[in-house]
Amino acid sequence: MTGRAATLWTPVDASWEPWLREWFASTVAAAALSAVLSLCPEIDGSGLVVDIDAGPSELEDVCTGDARHQVWISELAPGGNGCREPSWLENMELCGKKAA
């Protein structure tokens, strides 16, 4: 425990960057999920999961090689819960944008 306590007064250097990036991504993910649930109250939050690890990607994926900056909000139910798309379309229309 004594060795870990020294972290409290050790200066922050480049070795902290991976930890800081992970905490930043976690904070952004939590804020994004909170925003989705606030904008779309008909969506059951227990049916969504947030992930900051993108996992494997396709070669043509534009984000390949830069997975550090990805936040995923996924539905747990196979086929989704049916609320996501209509909710996004409704919110787009509220913002004055026409859905295609």
Helix content: 25-40%
Number of spatially distinct domains: 1
The SS-based structural class is mainly alpha
Main sheet, how many strands, which sense, barrel?
A: 2 strands, antiparallel
Net shape: extended
Unreliable spans are none
Q: What is the helix/strand order?
A: HHEEH
Q: Gist?
A:
This protein is mainly α.
Topology:
Blueprint: H1 2-5, H2 17-39, E1 48-51, E2 72-75, H3 84-94
Antiparallel strand pairs: 1-2
How does this model look, in words?
The chain is mostly helical and 100 residues long. It has one domain (18-94). It has three helices and two strands; from the N terminus they run H-H-E-E-H. It has a two-stranded antiparallel ribbon with strand order 1-2. It is extended. The model has no long low-confidence stretch (mean pLDDT 75).
Please give a handful of descriptors for the protein shown.
100 residues; mainly alpha; two-stranded antiparallel sheet; 3 helices; 2 strands; extended
